[in-house]
Amino acid sequence: MSEQVPFKFSDQILEKNNQFNIIIKPFGLPTQEDKTKDESLLLHATRYFKHEVHMINRLDRPVGGLVLMANKKSTATFFSNETRLHKVKKSYLAVVKGAPKEKEGTLVNFISKNGKYNKAYISAEANEHTSKCSLDFKLLHTFDNYSLIKVGISSGKFHQIRAQLAHADLPIRGDVKYGARRANKDRSIDLFAYCLEFRHPVTKQNQIFKAPIPEHNGLWKDIKNADLVDLA
C-alpha cells in the first residue's frame, strides 16, 4: 500500500448542490480504487455525502484538480451525454520543460493505449488502433527551465495531455513515464485540472468553476504569485 495523502475532504469541496459536487482532488490520490487499494477520492466522497455519487471525469493519480460528481443517476446520464457530445469543457495548467514554439495553438494527433505498459502512444497517422485527439494550448508564463501553459480538451483519452505534450517535446514536470528527466519527490506530476465548464443539468445555464492555484510545491507557489491575467 502506498503512503496516503493527508487532507480534509471538506476543505476540497469547491461546489455542492442537489445535482452535483465539484471536488479538488489532491495530487497523488487515486480518483477511484486502484491496484494499491489505497483510499480513493470516490470513497472519501461517499463517506462524506453519505450516499452514492457518480464520477463524471477522472484524473490520473499523480494529477491534481477538479473532479465532477453527480448525486443522481439521471444527472450522471445527463453529464455522460454532454461529455460524449464534447460539451463538458476541461482546462488544465501544465508546467512543462522548455517552451512551445508558438504562444498558442492546437495539437492534433492520433493516440492509442497500451494496456500492458499502462501508457499512451502517439502516431503521426490514423490506423485501426488509434483515435484522433486534439489539444488547445496557450503559453501563460515562463521560468528559467520551465513554462506554464493552459491546456484545453473536450475529449478525455487515456493520458491524452501527458502523451500529446511529450510528443511535442514539452514533457510535464515530474512525468518520467512521458519523458521528464526526474520525478517529483512525492511522485506527482505538475498537471492541474483548474477549470470545468458545462451546462447545468436542470436550468441548462452555463456553469464555470475554477479552482485556486494549488500550494503544492515551490514552483506552484511562484505561479500563484505571478500576475496571470488569463486565469482571472
CATH architecture of one domain: 2-Layer Sandwich
Number of helices: 4
Question: Could you describe the largest sheet, including whether it forms a barrel?
Answer: 11 strands, mixed
CATH superfamily of one domain: Pseudouridine synthase
Indicate the low-confidence ranges by residue numbers. none
Mean pLDDT over all positions? 91
User: What helical percentage do the residues reach?
Assistant: 10-25%
Q: Radius of gyration, rounded? A: 17 Å
Strand content range:
25-35%
Structural class: alpha+beta
CATH fold name of one domain: Pseudouridine synthase
CATH class of one domain: Alpha Beta
The count of β-strands is: 11
Q: What general outline do the C-alpha atoms trace? A: globular
Write a concise keyword list for the protein shown above.
232 residues, alpha+beta, Pseudouridine synthase, 11 strands
Structural summary, described in words:
This protein has four helices and eleven strands. With 232 residues, the protein is of the alpha+beta class. Strands 1, 2, 3, 4, 5, 6, 7, 8, 9, 10 and 11 form an eleven-stranded mixed β-sheet that branches. The mean pLDDT is 91.
Summarize this, please?
By secondary structure, the chain is α+β, with helices and mostly antiparallel strands. The chain is 16% helix and 34% strand. It has four helices and eleven strands.
Please render the helix and strand layout as text.
Elements: E1 13-16, E2 20-25, H1 41-49, E3 54-55, E4 64-70, H2 73-84, E5 89-97, E6 104-114, E7 119-123, E8 131-142, E9 146-153, H3 160-167, E10 191-199, E11 206-210, H4 218-225
Parallel strand pairs: 4-10
Antiparallel strand pairs: 1-2, 2-4, 3-4, 5-9, 5-10, 6-7, 6-8, 8-9, 10-11
